[in-house]
Predict the structure.
Amino acid sequence: MSRNVSAHLFYSVNGVVESPNLFQFDAFGQEEGERMGAALAPVKEIVIGRKLWEEWRDYWQGPGAGDEFGNFINPIPKHVISSTLGDDLDWNSTRISGDPVDYVKKLKDGEGGDISVVGGVETVRSMFLGGAIDVLTLTMHPAVTGEGRRLFDDSTPLTRLELVDSGTSSLGNVFLNYRLKPQD
């Protein structure tokens, strides 16, 4: 049996996923927290890019260590995409060697619980378009940002998605769960 691989990003109405803390902090309530908690409950391992891994390692082992997400992220095994880090990583982490998409597909076929790809932008994009992510959740916040990176930019080829599930929170956030649409 295959493990489920998912990713979740916050994005603005104009498609920006970079620095969601700039537009989602005032539109994240109890419903959003409950959805995120339910999505993370079956997750037993994460895949993360090097930059985000370094940021989170410093923060979640320090000031954020005791909060709910800190209690989740600190002990969980982490698979880090990096060509610059060595193999001797701390924070319960393993460096991914070889092609990251192939690595995650092999991880998916192994034993254990679900896997979450937590970022960054390029990591989620390549994993989703490469077929390693089963479900991509986008939480659209009712905000328009001026600038910032988008998950799918002008270089992304035409890709058909299939809506798996959706919902709206009382704060006006829209939850969209997608998977790649099977090719005919």
The first strand starts at residue 5 and ends at 12. The helical segments are 21-24, 30-40, 50-60, 68-73, 100-108, 121-129.
